[in-house]
């Protein structure tokens, strides 16, 4: 009988303790220590779709899925034969126009001026000779010594010679004056257009090489050598790894405890007990509903503020999208400017 009573009392004690534990868990769920604030989030997923800024056939693909790349590393190239022909043609047209502009600016050469003067002198002599010949033929025609047709021909020849003399004088004046300002400016404008075309041809040739824009890991290799590409067709998907941060969320009641520059620690379920150094880099000025992907201790429909926590990942253990817990110590008296050391990821 006594054993039965003891069992009942023990059962009642266990139920009471369990109920108290459940009550305490519900009561203090989401509460944080006065010395630290705990936030929940995920390692931010950042991806870049890499594509050529050109339309051509792929010549080579230099990296594979899983390869780590550095900024400026060559990833792929296009066939460049046609692009090189376009550069050579543009260069030739540009050089030809440069010579044209130089010729117009330099004006007439001394030899051209001297030739124009000689042409004027020759035309003047021919005009004088034709005029004298016509003058001699006119009296003879009146005395019927020569035909009137011959006299008229001599007069026409004299007038033609005088016109040629005047034309030679105008040609000499043009040689002395030089090219028109409008012609020079037009040639310069054409030169600028050809320079732009040449620069565009060089840019298209340079765009035949695809480089990594930042540190990251090749997540997808979408195309292969021989494929035809366009600016709208990605070649690689690059997962960015630097800098790495956790996108966490803080309630409005905890917002006043945070400020940019505060030191933080990041932990994950994949590496229990291991802490990664971090610091708060950004606090959103606007509220939002808690994302459904975040396992937070607050009600999912509560309004929260996004907090970006930069984190050090020296051993490359953190993965994009990994759930993470952020612990922000609140007992540090340092100012935001002094919270983050010059090199926060360097071992002290």
From TrEMBL:
Could you state one GO cellular component term attached to this entry?
Answer: periplasmic space
YbhG-like alpha-helical hairpin domain boundaries: 84-206
Give the SUPFAM superfamilies listed for this entry: HlyD-like secretion proteins
Origin: domain of life: Bacteria
Keywords from the UniProt entry: Coiled coil, Periplasm, Signal
Q: Where in the cell is it found?
A: Periplasm
* Membrane-crossing segments per the record: none
Q: Which residues form the CusB-like beta-barrel domain?
A: 243-328
What protein family does this chain belong to?
Belongs to the UPF0194 family.
**What name is this protein filed under?**
Secretion protein HlyD family protein
